[in-house]
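**Fold in tokens:**
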Amino acid sequence: MVSEFPLKPIKRILKKYYQGEISTDACIYIRDLLLDVTEYLANQGIKEFVEYNCRRQEHNLPVLKRLDKSVFIDISDKIFNAVRNNNIGEVGKCNEILLCQGGNITNKKRKDIIIKDAGVEVV
């Protein structure tokens, strides 16, 4: 993959959190990961923007010419803050209840929720 991100800033950021040695392979891996995520976000953002403009055309509204950051804010919220709950099939904000499902764990923050093997039961 051709890179336009230099390794030096990545290494500098890693050095803030880890004072030991950092390999060049670690920096290259993070750079490639950043490039992949950036490319994915760009593709998804453009796709959403085109769909949004199609909906505007259907309602006889003028088409937007400039790609705005709001598209990427929506995309990043969908990607980074959503957790799929396989038991129920819903997508929601990341929380401890969804992450803890599968065991007999009592949530200590809210005493009215008990997580059991069969799902979530509200008492």
